[in-house]
UniProtKB/TrEMBL annotation:
It comes from Thermacetogenium phaeum. GO terms for biological process: DNA integration. InterPro entries: IS607_transposase-like, Recombinase_CS, Resolv_N, Resolvase-like_N_sf, SSR_resolvase, Transpos_IS607. It holds the Pfam family Resolvase. This is Resolvase. It comes from the Bacteria. SMART domains: Resolvase. The active site is at 42 (o-(5'-phospho-dna)-serine intermediate).
Length: 188
């Protein structure tokens, strides 16, 4: 039953909270200390070596040290470039329902290699702050650019090797080399 307020004119008004309750939107109002932990490794080999569990243990210890209440833990074994990650999807759905206030991650690249700013903005819109628990030493712009380029080339080559036939792979690498040479000459 929807609760309404009857005005002196006989009209009914329905509070937004009631509409959200019926529709299942608007979310649960999370307490300020409610956090979700998110950990990711790129390969099954890393997960089997215990890297994923150690990452999660460090996040748990950090949350306990800060006095946070853990309301969810989500893991992924997938590339940071992969956009189809179940754990990340669950985190986003919980955020959209307003179930927590902070997302704890060990490093920004555990959340996403690229598009981190978009995820950060979306989570902020949902009322969630990302808290990075481990700070790496600052990376200069040149080193960061090289790291990003290597990530892109690795992703590109993985897609090419997955393509049928060596001809496509060779052609793809020729195009990649030509593009890199053009970029070096400033033609792009």
């Amino acid at each position: 039953m929807i609760k309404s307020i009857r005005l002196p004119s006989g009209q009914r008004r329905y509070p937004a909270e009631e509409i959200n309750r019926i529709l299942g939107t608007g979310g649960i109002k999370a307490e300020q200390d409610a956090v979700v932990l998110y950990a990711r490794v790129s390969t099954k080999k890393q997960a089997d070596a215990g890297n994923l569990e150690r990452q999660m243990e460090r996040l748990r210890a950090y949350a306990q040290e800060k006095g946070y209440r853990i309301v969810g833990e989500h893991l992924d074994v997938a590339s940071g470039l992969n956009q189809n990650r179940r754990g990340l999807e669950r985190v986003l759905k919980m955020a959209e329902r307003g179930e927590f206030k902070k997302l704890l991650i060990e490093y920004p690249d555990r959340l996403a290699r690229f598009g981190y700013a978009y995820l950060e903005r979306h989570l902020k819109h949902c009322g969630v702050e990302i808290e990075v628990t481990s700070q790496r030493e600052p990376v200069d712009a040149h080193t960061e650019l090289v790291q990003d380029l290597l990530t892109i080339v690795t992703s590109f080559s993985a897609r090419l090797y997955g393509a049928r036939g060596g001809r496509k792979v060779r052609q793809g690498f020729r195009e990649l080399i030509e593009d890199a040479e053009k970029a070096q000459k400033g033609e792009v």
